[in-house]
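Q&A log
Question type: sequence-to-structure
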Amino acid sequence: MEFYDKTFWYTDPTGTVLHNAKLRKGWVLTVSSLARTPGLENATTRYTAFHRDREKEALWEKIRSEEFADKPTRMKAMFLFTSEEDVETAMQTWFKGEDRDILAVQVPKASNLHIADSKHLDAPQSDWDAAARLYWSGNQTDTPLLEAVLDGEAFIRDWEALKVRFR
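Response status: OK
Response body:
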């Protein structure tokens, strides 16, 4: 199997991703992949269930499905970071005070992966349409915070040596 030649980073808030990786000898499936299984169509992610920006995400998804249909949906995706620096920034801002495990991830080229600048999500509501198009086209701001939106499989590096901590 051919992988992208870079390491991505996942912040596991509950321990379930690492637990699932141990069950599958390092491999995890995104919820978006699982939701294509008959009977699991309503599977959802923690982000989808609890995020506060439903109107914004609905617009982002509408623009993606109409203009960037080859890109993975944010809804039910696994969000990865493209560098250790970006994961550290997210831990200090988005996830400040949270106890998350940081997992090194390899992504097979067969998975659907889109790298985007998450700072476009900070646009004021009046600019959401334009910001969504910039996000889905891969355009970066002057000070990007890159996220990788993943639909498919991923391999957790060092899964055998890591200890699952349920929270």
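Response note: The longest helix spans residues 54-67.
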